[in-house]
Amino acid sequence: DLFMFNDIAPAMPFFLPNGTAVYNGLIGYVRHLYAKHGYDEVITPQAFDPKLFRTSGHLPNYDENMYRLWTNDEIEHLVSKAVAEKKVVEKGEAATRAWHEEMRDRGFGLKPMNCPSHCVIFGSRRRSYRELPWRMADFGRLHRYERGGVVHGLSRVRTFCQDDAHIFCAEQDVPREITKFIELIGQVYKAFKFEKVDVKLATRPDKRVGSEEFWDKAEGALEHGLKTSGLPFEFLPGEGAFYGPKIEFHVQDALKRSWQLGTIQHDPNLPERFDLSYIGEDGKEHRPVMLHRAMLGSLERFFSVYLEHCGGNFPTWLAPKQAIVITVNNVIDPYAETVVAKLKAAGIRVDSDLSRDKLGAKIRNARLLRYPYMV
Question: 82-94, pLDDT tens digit by residue?
Answer without folding.
Answer: 666 665 555 555 5
